[in-house]
Queue: 2 jobs
Job 1
Amino acid sequence: MMKLLLLSILSSICLTKLARSQSPDPFIQSVVDLVSYDSLQSDLQELENFGRKEIFDTALAYTGEWLIQSYQNMGYNDIQTDYFEFSGQQIFNVVVTKPGTEFPDQYLIIDGHYDTQNGPGVNDNGSGVAIILEIARLVQNIPTRYSLRFINFTAEEYGLVGSYHYVQEVVIPQDMNIRLVFNIDEVGGVAGLPNDTIICERDESSPTANNAESWAFTDTLAALTGIYSGLESTISYAYGSDYVPFQNNGEIITGLYEFNNSPYPHTIHDSLANLDMNYVYEIAKLSVAATLYFSYAFDTTTGTTQKSETDKTVEIYPNPFSDFLFVRAPFEFSGFSLVLCDETGNIINYSQNVTSGEYKIPAKSFAPGFYSYKITDRLGYPIKQGKLVKIRY
Ligand SMILES: [Zn+2]
């Protein structure tokens, strides 16, 4: 409880700061600039043309095949159809993997369901599907340190059936290491309304051990909204979509959901004409930025990542130290964690989710001798490690 309270205070400080000072990373911005309104619109038109996609509709399988074809056309070769039986029908999730360069066994899952209820589901959830296709198209040639897994779940509208199946049959048996589940469901907005805000969803449910990290990722998602899209963000709780089975399994989740709650989903009027294409376009920009940010993408032209400049500026000092040890992380985005161990490997100090600025560790009680430290950023990526000497003046 204390930890959560502390984290939320730190996060709000961080966000206030971000709103004033954060500028776009040039590499991320260069990819965001490639988000195509036309490609989003034509994918949404295609999804409308397929019609209703309930489990007894042939359109559901056609849409699944079309998704597979779309990913193949982009150049993906690890595309799985995750078949299972539900109500006597053989249906499938579409699962596409892009291996990470440094942490191939750790996955950033980006998901959104492709089945619909009653109507063509252009908003619910054609919008999420089209955005995921756009992300996949733009990041296909960009190396990422963490693996990406795009999943289009089926039978979400029947009670998260596809995602429950996936967690039970894949995530748990394979003991999959999931860095984050980023769920995009119903982000089309409402035609004719000013759609200028997106809801960033965080985990406020039991189990609670995974909530703090969900809040941190969601704060970052909200901050990225202000930097890479023309939208405002607000934070709310996650519910009723495919991240729930993952959440129940203790995974870290975040998500996007429209702020103006459309009346059209689950009706025959959930059409392209009734959503706001500009809104979808802005959310696609945010989603592309978030994908690059959360997976630590590389800029292949310069060989650097978006973090490289800031990483160098983290300092731990003085060395040797005596009564106090200071850590300074001048970049605005990431809280960092510090682990300090003595010579025998015992953890002497563990400071979690410290925000940027100068952080002071009282060290008077530490025994003189050698210490090792490791600093990781809020997303768990190692920033710096080394040795320090404690002396007594
Ligand atoms: Zn939905």
Job 2
Amino acid sequence: MLTIKENAIFIADSHYPHHSNAFLKTLQKLENGEIKTSQIFLMGDNFDLLFGHNEYIQTFVEEAIALLQKLSKTIEIHYFEGNHDFCLKDIFTNMNVYTRDEQPVVFSLNDKKVAISHGDKYVTGFGYDLYCKVLRNKSTLTLLKPFEEAIINHRMKKLSQKHICHTFHGFEKRVEAILENYKEADLVIEGHFHQSRVVGKYISLPSQACQGMVAQLEEGEVVFKSL
Ligand SMILES: [Mn+2]
């Protein structure tokens, strides 16, 4: 089983390049050595919109992609694809990239089982499942080609105007339903909800775009912090 290492950094829901530049700044600090770690968990929705099999979408975030490709040669990076960033295996060939279907992935931490995923796997409904399947498909993305620039420009504009930081009222109820799928896990770490809260054994990571924070493993504990 894979192990979560001391000082591992969890970066969730950065929604770059809209909403915040924090993701790019963190990558630059990792590159110049200001931040040191030997393991990074990209928890998904780190990009506000990025997918493979398409050149044009990459032009919005070229610098961040290049930095990630470079960092992945020296740092162990696990990328849990989100609902805004998917089909990434061809872009980040030196990372462990997990599709929605391959999540959650169980890691060990001091003999404990820690289930990690972006956070949109369970309790989403049939419509969402189907939408994910169709959208995250090479043929769909290839079919888009003739219209791609107009569609992508429109999408990027819409996404940049979207309000993404909300308090989830009744979040405990949702967590309870999600945890029905995690009987075996001692700890569950997810992003997606932008809540920056711990509910029992469920860690809802801070969103780098909303709270401006990430999580880091310090003396075996997951702590939320600014980098
Ligand atoms: Mn998400």
